[in-house]
């Protein structure tokens, strides 16, 4: 089929993310991807500044990941996980326990980030049900968050970004703190810390858990905050008998400069969600980890099982490629890459502060953000970046990048130039 025929069929039948149907904007047709580059049907190549929604940390067609996948496909692509098990999933679970903060001991493998948040919430609600605290079924989070598009995760997304008004009466009504004060290196706002303690204490009888994205709030607005607020959450939840969930689906596997963002705070949550970069962006898989206390609590209940079991749970292909992807991180070389990218992003984006309409420029790890005082003109921004050989997908008032760790300094310079050019026209 020609590219024109494919795009006509796409327009006719394919529903794209966050898009109306029929769609209004024709997507770009990708035919291949290799290293940090996407190849389009018209022969153009674009440097991927998005790592395919933050997942392809090692880039595309990585020899080690390709080999892991092919080798596993030669043995078995899938078997059900109920009553059966296999080495790729067992090894992955053990590795995740080893590399995540101390205390997380059990691993529930599932299909996507949103499902891992569903599982995390189910674990927390069931824990308190099992222990006889029937009223503890609400969640507390802070504004500006994003935890996925299925219904329970939506209930803890930022109420405006998550369109809570559209879903009033459908979504469970959760409790919200204001967004954490901005700035990874800003001084701690003691009044916010007090508010954390007071809110957790006041609602402890009805709260099952607090759930937040540590250090970086991603799709809710690309905001960074001081790790001290995570310590405050840990202290408050521990003091008042509430569980703490960290959603590291976006921040996990090195993106913020530490392997897991929780490390910035030196805090272990009771439950941890991982996804996205878990398989190096090759296949959909996520994981929910929990402590022995959470697992033991659940197993004391009338229903001592966690009633969840996706068809493709523990998929061997995804597990094998996840093992290979985590294997690539284990020598620690990613730290040098992320540090190098961080400083290249800082110097490349510095001049964006002078662009009219830019209100903030911020960088943390391999994340660069240029925030405007108005909604991004998507068509103009996309034109500006693709003309410069770069792929970015801005949202709301944000131009941002999360490049693969193997992007070299020339690639990063192209990305930052494209972001500055987009800021001028968008
Ligand atoms: N939590 C966070 C922090 C995320 O960034 C995302 C995805 N952007 C999700 C949950 C949902 O993951 P998925 O899209 O794989 O369902």
Automatic annotation (TrEMBL):
It holds the Pfam family Aminotran_3. The record marks 18 as: Participates in the substrate recognition with KAPA and in a stacking interaction with the adenine ring of SAM. Coiled coil: none annotated. It comes from the Bacteria. One of its GO terms (cellular component) is cytoplasm. InterPro entries: Aminotrans_3 (IPR005814), Aminotrans_3_PPA_site (IPR049704), BioA (IPR005815), PyrdxlP-dep_Trfase (IPR015424), PyrdxlP-dep_Trfase_major (IPR015421), PyrdxlP-dep_Trfase_small (IPR015422). Its EC number is 2.6.1.62. It is an enzyme of class 2 (transferase). Its cofactor is pyridoxal 5'-phosphate. Keywords: Aminotransferase, Antibiotic biosynthesis, Biotin biosynthesis, Cytoplasm, Pyridoxal phosphate, S-adenosyl-L-methionine, Transferase. One of its GO terms (biological process) is biotin biosynthetic process. It is found in: Cytoplasm. Transmembrane segments: none annotated. Pathway: Cofactor biosynthesis; biotin biosynthesis; 7,8-diaminononanoate from 8-amino-7-oxononanoate (SAM route): step 1/1. GO terms for molecular function: adenosylmethionine-8-amino-7-oxononanoate transaminase activity; pyridoxal phosphate binding. It catalyses: (8S)-8-amino-7-oxononanoate + S-adenosyl-L-methionine = S-adenosyl-4-methylsulfanyl-2-oxobutanoate + (7R,8S)-7,8-diammoniononanoate. Substrate binds at residues 53, 146, 276, 309, 393. Pyridoxal 5'-phosphate binds at residues 113-114, 247, 310-311. HAMAP family: BioA. Homodimer. Belongs to the class-III pyridoxal-phosphate-dependent aminotransferase family. BioA subfamily. Catalyzes the transfer of the alpha-amino group from S-adenosyl-L-methionine (SAM) to 7-keto-8-aminopelargonic acid (KAPA) to form 7,8-diaminopelargonic acid (DAPA). It is the only aminotransferase known to utilize SAM as an amino donor. This is Adenosylmethionine-8-amino-7-oxononanoate aminotransferase. The lineage of its organism: Bacteria, Bacillati, Actinomycetota, Actinomycetes, Pseudonocardiales.
